Amino acid sequence: MMRFLFIAQTPSDNTSHLAQAALGALKAHAGSDSQIIFKPPTSVIASDIDDCEGLLLGSLENIGALAGLTKDMFDRCYNDWLGRKEGLPVGIYIRAGLDGTATKRTLTSYANALSWRLIQEPLILHGAYDEAFTAEVEELAAMMGAGVEAGIY
Ligand SMILES: Cc1cc2nc3c(=O)[nH]c(=O)nc-3n(C[C@H](O)[C@H](O)[C@H](O)COP(=O)(O)O)c2cc1C
To answer: Could you tell me if the CB of 10 is within 6 A of ligand 1?
Structure first.
């Protein structure tokens, strides 16, 4: 049985909608006996990644930086995650009204430092909210679910 952890910070209707879309796609493309655990970053503890074969992370950029509640999760868990789950396949999407590059850089450096394996570059959903973002997060989540299930990642 595959186990996935999906962490999403969802302070707005749009980010909640994106998280629900990603969750649906992950469920649809992971195996039917897979377990998918969905948590906000405030509820995550270091051991949550222990039994996971894949991690999907949805966050956002605020005031030129990674949003605080996701940063808080890394502040609390980073040291315990070092060396704990090397090679973990990780997919990341970032909702960014204005830019998103600082957050992409931060999350990429965290993933690299933790020896996690990004399944693709972090996806930035940039600019005014666009319903096309839904398909983009669904595609990322589907890749995560199907790819881990098939042993590609
Ligand atoms: C106080 C504040 C600061 C923000 N700063 C940034 C920023 O520096 N870069 C950016 O790309 N977006 C920024 N945004 C936009 C948020 O990323 C965006 O509103 C959030 O991801 C939620 O998406 P939504 O507005 O579509 O619900 C900011 C939003 C707020 C409220």
So the answer is: no
The best mutation among 10, 98, 133, 137 to test binding of ligand 1, ranked by most ligand atoms within 8 Å of the C-beta, falls on: 98
Cβ atoms of 112 and 31 within 8 Å: the answer is no
pTM exceeding 0.85:
yes
Instruction: Give the CATH H-level superfamily of domain 11-128.
Output: Flavodoxin domain (3.40.50.360)
Domain boundaries, the chain: 11-128
Q: How far apart are CA 10 and CA 50, in angstroms?
A: 24
Q: Check if the beta carbon of residue 22 is closer than 8 Å to that of residue 56.
A: yes
Strand, helix or coil for residue 80: helix
Would the pLDDT of 1 be above 90?
no
Cβ–ligand 1 contact at 64 (below 6 Å): yes
